[in-house]
Amino acid sequence: MSRIDWATDVLSWLPADAEAAVADLGAAPYRGRQLFQGLWRGHLASFEDLAVWPRSLRQAMSERYRLQRAVPLAEQRAHDGTVKGLLRLADGESVEAVLLPHRYGWSVCVSTQVGCAMGCHFCASGIGGRKRNLSAGEIMDQVAWASAVAPGRVGRVDLMGIGEPLDNYRETVRFLRLVHEPSGLGLSYRHLTVSTSGLVPAMLRLAEEGLPVTLAASLHAPDDALRESLMPVNRAYPVAKLLAACETYWERTGRRVTFEYLLIQGVNDGTALAESLADQLTFPAHVNVIPWNPVPEHPFRPSPPHQVKAFCDALLNRGIPCTVRRELGQEIQAACGQLRRTGALPAPT
Ligand code: SF4
Question: 25 with 80, same domain?
Answer without folding.
Answer: no
